[in-house]
Amino acid sequence: MSVSRVHGEDSRVVPFSRKGRRSLFLQLVIRGVRHMPGQGSCPIFSAKMEELPWIVKNYKPVMSVCTLVADATIMFSLHYSGYEGLLYSTLNFLVLMTMDLTFSENFAKNLKILNANGFSNAEVYQSILTSYLLVFPGTFLLLQVLLRETVIPYISHGLLIRVAIMLTVSETVFTFAHVALHQDLSKYHLMHHCCKHTSYSTNFVFHPIDLLMELGIPLVSMILTNLVLFKDNWALLCALTAGLTIYAQDHDEYLQRPHSKHHSQLTSPYTAYFDSSMHIKDAVRPMVKSE
């Protein structure tokens, strides 16, 4: 038997047995949830690295893969499985959010910055809940209205062209909306940019107006493009999936895509899908106070 110390407490486990690893993992998760970010460092990081189970030591790539799978299947599950799909997306959200708050230090770091900028813990958690309601139940209701008949999948060169056109329109709309949020509408964008250290939770720390402009308007632009040009609901479903997936991956802690630099340094790119250089007078940068 060996003794591992987790958050100041002794936990006797067998380090190499399956039971011992499972026991330690459950202790870490439970204590991580009990000691929510903002109340000190996560207890997981006070344990010795060699005593941690594989999934904890490698949580960044694991989170990245899990998030990719979840985002790439949400639209399809909401359309083809209805309320079961909504339950599936909700369970994904709960599991991934719990993993992020438990294993990653980034949310705790961001919470300190948010507090320094006048946002209480309650406001932050409320923003996460509001974002969840807008993204998942909101998208579910939208798909129920738009796609009343089951969409038939197909593969063709025309499909790729239609998806590419809708993504291009969405990227253009997002860029204009995002620049506006960094200038005239900066007060709505401040909360999101207090998240200097990106991770899964960053996808949900938004003022509602900010979320509608960054995610809602670009998605609506895809819908309108499809209604005017294509009337192809399978292409629309694929474009919505691609757009949501790429946007969510922008905040991935492991991938560290160019948008992560945008958060840490408040510089270009102001685009969502592509890395491009733009120079604007940024009103958000001087507003963000350090922790």
Low-confidence stretches: 1-22, 37-41
- Termini separation (Å)? 42 Å
The Rg value, from CA coordinates, equals 21 Å
Main sheet: strands, sense, barrel: 2 strands, antiparallel
Helicity range:
55-70%
Mean pLDDT: 85
How would you sum up the global shape?
Answer: globular
* SSE class: mainly alpha
What's the number of extended β-strand segments?
Answer: 2
Number of helices: 11
As a percent range, the share of strand residues is: under 5%
- The H/E string reads EEHHHHHHHHHHH
Arrangement of strands in the largest sheet: 1-2
Characteristic terms for this protein:
mainly alpha, 63% helix, 11 helices
Please give a structural write-up:
Helices cover 63% and strands 3% of the residues. The protein contains eleven helices and two strands, in the order ββααααααααααα. It has helices spanning 18-34, 54-57, 59-81, 83-103, 106-116, 121-146, 157-181, 186-193, 208-230, 233-249, 258-265, and strands at 2-6, 9-13. A two-stranded antiparallel sheet has the order 1-2. α3 (59-81) runs antiparallel to α10, α7 (157-181) packs across α10 (233-249) and α9 runs antiparallel to α10. The radius of gyration is 21 Å and the shape is globular. The protein starts with a strand and ends in a 26-residue tail after the last helix.
